[in-house]
Write a structure and sequence with these properties.
Blueprint lengths: L17 H5 L17 E6 L2 E9 L11 E2 L2 E2 L7 H5 L2 H8 L4 H10 L5 H16 L9 H12 L6
Antiparallel strand pairs: 1-2, 3-4
Helix pairs in contact: 3-5, 3-6
The structure holds iron/sulfur cluster (2 copies).
Pfam family, one: CxxCxxCC
Organism: Sphingomonas suaedae
Protein name: YkgJ family cysteine cluster protein
Length: about 160
């Protein structure tokens, strides 16, 4: 018998690869990502206003992550920190901690929330709740990231 606690991997993606198709993954050397290893480019990001940050390249034809294959992630064992940390269920749960007005700001930007991923998050969060896994989804870091983006977003008059 094992007393290992479940983690977010207990919430299955079920063959979905939506976030590999839509999100551009920012690399985080401070979290251990080896920039020498990845096919990357420097981009602007809502999370780091005024900076250009390293991110996995996208396939110019499909727009998907360059490492996405029909069988899934080609670098599964070495996927960047963000890929290992991200879960749409966590993102959906974190959105639920924001006020409606703050969620509206994120939607209005157009570069933070993807409808398909939010919908997938709603589904996977439902699965998590149904299976008693809500507790594996810590959201403080995600909420803090959303709050930083909101604070850096100019208000429309
Ligand atoms: S969108 Fe959600 S279910 Fe789909 S691959 Fe990403 S984390 Fe998994
Ligand atoms: S590195 Fe792998 S897990 Fe990360 S976005 Fe690309 S295909 Fe998906």
């Amino acid at each position: 018998m094992t007393d290992e606690k479940p983690d977010q991997n207990a919430i299955p993606c079920g063959g979905c690869t939506e976030c590999c198709k839509t999100d551009q993954v920012i690399l985080r050397p401070e979290a251990g990502d080896d920039l020498e290893f990845y096919d990357l480019e420097y981009i602007e990001s809502a999370l780091y206003p005024g900076q250009r940050v390293p991110a996995l390249k996208r396939d110019s034809r499909t727009g998907h992550c360059v490492y996405l294959r029909d069988s899934g992630c080609a670098i599964h064992g070495r996927a960047p920190w963000t890929c290992r940390r991200f879960h749409c269920a966590r993102m959906f749960k974190a959105l639920g901690r924001l006020s409606r007005a703050k969620r509206d700001i994120l939607w209005a930007r157009g570069d933070v929330l993807e409808e398909a991923i939010v919908e997938r998050g709603r589904d996977r969060y439902g699965y998590a709740v149904e299976h008693g896994l809500d507790g594996v989804l810590d959201t403080d870091m995600q909420v803090a990231a959303f709050e930083r983006i909101i604070a850096a977003t100019p208000r429309r008059r």
